[in-house]
Amino acid sequence: MTIRTLVWGENVHEQTNKTVAKLYPDGMHACIAGALNKDAGITAETAVLQDAEHGLTAERLANTDVLIWWGHAAHGDVDDTVVERVCEAVWGGMGMIFLHSAHFSKPFKRLMGAPCNLTWREAGERERLWVTSRNHPIAAGIDNYFELENEEMYGEPFGVPEPLETVFVSWFQGGEVFRSGLTYKRGAGNVFYFRPGHETYPTYHNENVLKVIANAVHWAHNPLARVADPTDAPNVPVDKAPEKIEERGEKLHAAGEAGFR
Q1: 148 inside domain
Q2: Does residue 237 sit within a domain?
Q3: What's the average pLDDT block by block, 10 residues per block, for the chain (261 residues)?
Q4: CATH of the domain at 13
Q5: Residue (of 249, 180, 243) closest to 209 by Cα position
Q6: What is the DSSP annotation of 151-216?
Q7: Region for residue 179 given its phi and psi (left: phi exceeds 0; alpha: psi -120 to 50; beta: otherwise)
Q8: Domain span at 88
Q9: Most buried pick, 40, 114, 241, 242, via CB within 10 A?
Q10: Rounded distance, CA 7 to CA 45, Å?
Q11: What is the rounded distance in angstroms from the CA atom of residue 108 to the CA atom of residue 95?
Q12: What gap in Å lies between CA 241 and CA 62, rounded to an integer?
């Protein structure tokens, strides 16, 4: 069985900016999916903001092992119902990869529980990405560092929770540094944030970048069955307690009554 991967793209700049359209005539999402489909262990499809329910129906997410997210200009246009659906899928065990400006996307901010802010500059400067966790599966096949000749600068401080692992750190020509490859666990789901990917530069044609994304798909995949209801908070009856107990004191809830949310 291959890893069922869905590459989600905002698909706005490709329609409105000539530079982006020339670099990615079929969209950044299609470029990434095309590269992933060269991996025998991955089957990648695409969805975009403009699709019904943004292409992220409950059925489609149930059949997605890893979801990749790229967004920038239209974070606010993503429906909150879809955001919650995506987050529940992650909590249930779906892998999730956020790329570049998806640090400000609704799903990332919801999963991080943080402002996810940073400093930035759009000057086409050189970015050098250093591997900071040798032998990490996401960095497999990558040298000690690789460079992108033109990229947007992201700088610290990065307003996210402390990650499980920092896989890459970036240095920029202007002098800033940034934690550019971070892993998290949210519920049963593996989450990876990867910084490169400004739309006016050919970042998603770079072999190293595409290699990291493919590695991250394999890393994020959880082969176990999805948790059916990851937000369930059941009221456990007294007679179902692991050890025998007797009820004592006054009660706020009746037996079997749902708790407050």
Answers
A1: no
A2: no
A3: 97 97 98 98 98 98 98 98 98 98 98 98 98 97 98 98 98 98 98 98 98 98 96 91 92 83 82
A4: 3.40.50.880
A5: 180
A6: EEEEESPP-SPPPSEEEEEEEETTS-EEEEEEEEEETTEEEEEE----TTTTGGG-HHHHHHHHHH
A7: beta
A8: 3-116+181-220
A9: 114
A10: 6
A11: 13
A12: 32
In a domain, 256, yes or no: no
DSSP 260: P
The total domain count for the chain is 1
Q: Is residue 144 part of a domain?
A: no
- The residue to which tokens 């400000």 are assigned: 104
Three-state DSSP class for residue 64:
coil
Structure-token match 């908070």, residue found: 233
Q: What are 230's two structure tokens?
A: 């990851």
| Cβ-Cβ contacts under 8 Å for 48 (sequence gap 6 or more) | 8, 9, 10, 11, 27, 29, 54, 55
The single residue listed with the structure tokens 């004191």 is 249
Q: How many residues does the chain have?
A: 261
In single-letter form, the type of residue at position 102 comes to: A
